[in-house]
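Incident log, structure service

09:12 report received: a user says their structure output differs between two submissions of the same chain.
09:20 pulled the input from the user's history:
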Amino acid sequence: MGNYKLKIKPSALKELEKIPRNDSKKIINKIKSLAHNPHPVGSEKLSGSEKYRIRQGNYRIIYSIENNALIVFVIKIAHRKDVYK
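09:34 re-ran on a clean worker, output below:
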């Protein structure tokens, strides 16, 4: 499996800036790991769409995968109570 290019939606970057530094570092590392393996252990496909979810502590990272272009597109980063709203 080749390396995927990471793209992050501007609104997801703003959400990441609001997260405490300790948690945001872990989230950034988790996102970077998606470039090597977009389907890691714990990743789940969301029903009703072509999006996936991965957990990092109390936060969720919602992303989509474009396999033909080798791109992982991070759509949303939020606390677990707010991410699906």
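09:41 both user submissions now match this output. Likely a transient worker issue. Closing.
09:42 reviewer note: The first strand starts at residue 5 and ends at 8. The domain at 5-79 is CATH 3.30.2310.20 (YaeB-like fold).
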